[in-house]
Amino acid sequence: MTWWKDQRNLPGDAEAKRSLYARLTRCLPDNSLPQRTLFDLYHEIHGPTVYGLSALLPEVWLHWDPKTARARGAQALLNFRMDFLLLLPDGHHIVLEVDGMHRYTTQGQPDSAKYAANMRGDRNLKLAGYEVFRFGAHELRDRDRDRARALLQQFFHDLFRQFDVTPAPTELTSRRDTPGTWLPSGTGDRPAPARGRPLPWAR
Question: Which three-class secondary structure string do you get for the chain?
């Protein structure tokens, strides 16, 4: 968060986090509603605690990630784009992919070469040390938003438990003007912080 605050010359962490959220939203592709649904629900599900979690980075090109640049050189996997990247503590790199028909078809017909290219990309990511989780676009349809929300709520709960992730409290936990829907602090309904490692956004 420090790099974003310094780059934008912002006065504090709260303003930097809101500014970064707006910037990440603009990175989402216009032609993928399921990706937008995943991004929106990540913030809605976690409410105010999202600011104590790692940023969900959309549309990340693999060679921009310093892990890969160091390991394989600046030209590594130039053409591979991740739908979302989560940088968790202890060097865990989590990739979330939303797969629509376009990933495996050409003009509506199955395309074995395109399928093979996607599988090769998966292998390359895993060999580079990434954990890859795929969602079908059908699972994240906006018209089935309640079902998508339940699916993602369980997924992120299981993911963060597996990697011992707990959102650290931040100054934004009681604000109403940040993404998501929740009660302000002092109502008694906000869960107490659980034990675990604080995440990069909270440091």
Answer: CHHHHHHHCCCCHHHHHHHHHHHHHHHCCCCCHHHHHHHHHHHHHHHHHHHHCCCCEEEEEHHHCHHHHHHHCCCCCCCCEEEEEEEEHHHEEEEEEEECHHHCEECCEECHHHHHHHHHHHHHHHHCCEEEEEEEHHHHCHHHHHHHHHHHHHHHHHHHHHCCECCCCCCCCCCCCCCCCCCCCCCCCCCCCCCCECCHHHC
